[in-house]
Specification:
The complex is a heterodimer of chains A (165) and B (113). Helix content of chain A is 20%, strand content 35%. Chain A has four helices and seven strands. Chain B is mostly helical. Chain B has helices at residues 10-18, 21-32, 38-42, 49-61, 81-94, 96-111, and strands spanning 65-70, 73-78. Chain B has a two-stranded antiparallel ribbon. In chain B, helix 1 (10-18) runs antiparallel to helix 4. The chains are: A alpha+beta (165), B mainly alpha (113). The interface between A and B is medium-sized, with 37 and 33 residues.
């Protein structure tokens, strides 16, 4: 599958329905894939939010702080460990973001030397999308980089807002 | 700790890229409308196509702009992650003690009956 065409498969995507986030992380593709799909590791760089799934193509996933707040849900559309994960994404944390409907999140992991380029493409966004929908990605990716490169968690304000420990 | 090593040009490239007013204008143009072609961006700044290309290259090398292909078009996207890394690297070091003290004060004040 040619991943670069996923976002614009129909060639009709209006400019502005897509947000792209890229980061280089000194880690293996398997380490990055593991951090994205392991609920405990994932929570460490995602505001304390766990993501539960069996990670099979066509299966569902739920992101939440168990018993406290539901954050997002969707379907795993393409699962090709450790390089490509495409998910539908419906935000659930407020009425405003619920009203934005279903969007799509693509994780691409590409090895570059002894590091990886991780690209998150959040597309199929509605017109004038609520910035809350995609505004968290830089902090999540920064936290993932810190976790994999140093073993530590980011503690910048807001980065552990849902953490229960 | 290797916070910086693998972003293409490192932190120096990010600060250098942000130091130029035309490059900041280009980032603002992408912030206003993400995913633009070179031709569209040319209209945003009073500069030749070659000049815009040169500035976009510096922004790409700093990781601040990412390109994706759509058909035959090359679209430019603002990548805010390096700016976040600067925030997490520097703000956490110098500003966080104040920020967390203020957060604590806010919590205390709001909890006071």
């Amino acid at each position: 599958m040619n991943v670069t065409t996923i976002s614009f498969a129909q060639g009709t995507a209006p400019v502005g329905d897509t947000a792209v986030f890229e980061i280089f992380i000194k880690a293996t593709p398997e380490q990055i894939w593991g951090a994205i799909t392991d609920p405990v590791l994932r929570a460490k760089f995602s505001f304390g939010v766990q993501t539960q799934s069996d990670w099979a193509t066509g299966s569902s996933y739920q992101a939440s702080v168990p018993g406290i707040v539901a954050i997002a849900e969707g379907e795993n559309l393409v699962v090709e460990p450790p390089h490509l994960l495409v998910q539908s994404f419906t935000a659930l944390w407020s009425d405003e973001v619920k009203a934005q409907g279903t969007t799509r999140v693509t994780w691409e992991i590409e090895q570059v030397g002894d590091s990886c380029r991780l690209t998150v493409v959040h597309d199929q966004l509605p017109e004038s999308a609520n910035a809350e929908l995609y505004g968290g990605w830089p902090m999540i990716l920064s936290g993932l980089k810190t976790l994999l490169e140093t073993g530590e968690m980011l503690t910048t304000p807001g980065s552990l807002m849902y953490s229960q420990s | 700790m290797t916070y910086w090593s693998p972003i293409v040009g490192g932190v120096d490239a990010v600060f250098k890229a942000l130091a130029d007013p035309t490059r900041r204008d280009l980032l603002d143009a992408l912030f206003a409308e993400d995913g633009q072609t070179l031709t569209a961006l040319e209209e945003r700044v009073p500069m030749t196509r070659f000049g815009v290309m040169k500035h976009l290259k510096a922004l790409e090398e700093a990781g601040l702009v990412v390109t994706r292909k759509r058909g035959r078009e090359k679209l430019h996207f603002l990548n805010p992650v390096p700016i976040r890394l600067i925030h997490d690297r520097w703000v956490s070091k110098y500003a966080e003690p104040w920020a967390s003290a203020l957060t604590e004060l806010k919590t205390q004040l709001e909890d006071t009956p």
